Every structure is written in C-alpha cells, then in structure tokens.
Amino acid sequence: MNTASPTAPLRVALIGYGLAGSVFHAPLVTATEGLVLDTVVTSDPGRQGQVREAHPDVRIAASADELWARAGGGDAPDLVVIASPNKTHVPLATAALTAGLPVVVDKPLAATAAEARDLAALADRTGTFLSVFQNRRWDNDFLTLRRLLDGGDLGEVLRFESRFERWRPQLKGGWRESGAPEEIGGLLYDLGSHVVDQALVLFGPAVRVYAEADVRRPGAEADDDTFIALTHANGVRSHLHVSATTAQLGPRFRVLGSRAGYVKYGLDPQEAALREGLRPGDESRPWGEEPEHLWGRLGSGESPLTGGGLPVRTAAGDYPAYYAAVAAALRSGGPAPVTAHEAARCLAVLEAARRSSAEGVAVDL
What's the predicted TM-score (pTM) here? Predict the structure, then answer.
C-alpha cells in the first residue's frame, strides 16, 4: 500500500542494476514527477559502484530481503521494480505482493501464462498493484501506427509485418543467451515479448500461432533467429521477426491495408538516447523525436525506397508515459498501464510459438 503522504514523492526500490535496471528503469523513474528512486538492490560490488556514481543519494541493499523487512513500516517502499534476470521475476514478485508492496516487473513477467495468471490472482487477493513494463507500447512507430489505424488511413488491415532485428554475429554470453530452460533466455521471450504484445494490442487476440525458432550462431544455445505468425480473431495476420543474425535490416513495420500501406524503417531513438546518458526533460534534444528522413511513408502501389507514398510525421516516443501512468494509478487506485492479465495473454502466444517450432505444427489457442 502507498505509505507516502498525498504530496510526498512515492519511494521506489529497484531490484537489479544490469541493462534493464540501469538503462531503462532507474533513468525513467528519476525523470517521473512524483517518483523518487530510494533504493537499488544489487549484490554486485561493481554495480553498487555504478549506482553510487549515477545516483549518489540512493540507498543500496545487497538483498531483496531488506525490502521485505521494511514492508508494513514507515520506511516501506511505495513501489518495487523488478529488473533482475528473468528466472527471478516470479519469486520476487510473489514475495513483494505477499508483503503488500506494489510491483512493476520487467517483461517477460513469467515463463508461462499460468504463472502470470497466478501472480495476477495474488495481486487481486492482496489488493496490491501489479504491472508489467512493456515500454515498446510507447515507441514512436507504434504510437504513429495507432494514430493511422484510429484515423482509418489504412482501411481494413490485412497483414501486419513487424521486425525487431539486429546484427550481432558474436555471442555476448550471459543468461540471456543461455539454453537452460530455467533462465528463460533466447529472443522468443526477449524481443518476442515486445512484438507479440504490440500485435495483440493493435489487432486483438490470436487464435492460431505458427513459429520457427532457430539457433544460428556458432556456439549459441538459445534461439537467435525467430519468426512468429499469428492469425487474429478478426482475420488480421501478423508476421513477426526477431533476430540477432540479420546482416541487412528490414522495415520495422510494414502494414498492408485495403486502402493503403504504411512502411517504417529504423528503431525508436529512446533506447539509444538512454544508453548515451540522455534523459527525458533534457533541453539539449527533444525527447523521442526523430529526423524527417526517418519518417515512414503511407501509400499504395509505390515503393517507399524510391520515394513513393506520402511521408508521415512520426509521433514522439514516450517511455516516460509508462511510469507517469504507474504513479497516477498508485495515487488514485486506478488501473495499471499494462496488466498481468495482458502479460498472460502474450505468454500464452509465446508458449504456443515454442511448441509450434518444436513440433513443426500450427497451434490453435
């Protein structure tokens, strides 16, 4: 429960200070009005040093148990953000919810839809806030596509193509590339969590899933080149690609409708800005904006690569909107910006995709 006064900032405890914690969550929390980063949990001495350098006023805890011990008292965090390795998401979220502490969990919430539904049920029983960090709902291209769909510019959408591709021929190692099932590594659950979530938000529930999950790089253990095909209940077909082995990148979105198509190249600039140390609210650069030459194009019967179609101004990306919505929900008791039930629906698709690839069959949901 919220222990802060109506005007005091909500105290946030962040568990994990790897890529997700240091690049995404800590900067976005500190940039959100009404939130303050109070504690970072990491047992790694090197990362503790990084925390001290980047956030000198923040407390450091070596174990999440220190947070649970503070629950129920005046020093309890008002929000726990779990940005630790995937395999820890369920046990840490369970402990936080049991302690009555509101929780944000980085995607994927869990390994299975059943685990996600159990967490949602626990949050409901305890009356405790639970949300999943799906920042790609606030990507610039996604926001632009939603605007085009709402305006009817494309007509009836027939096919949605989405690519989240990279060229990383050399392995980095670590749990994200581990083949051990308990690590929940590989691109299906990493980037696949994003592209599937976006497709479900845009076009509704899927009724059939087909997937090809391949391990391409020498020495790799987990899938690094994966394709997922969804048939939505409304008839739209989504073709989703996630890859670390793409030497020539395709369009981020290619959306084909009965009236027109929309093609957009390039990734949202917010992650790159955060990695560079830029922060929302920086006056040096408008947040989430991209130059005109990267705008997507809308048209029919023409190639965007030769200048066909009309340029469509890309909406500004808005990752800060996620934590602003979290803060508002904690203050008002309103809904989470991304719910555990939505995460469960996404995980059901990912599970079906894993089965489809393993068995070489399409899976009905």
Answer: 0.95
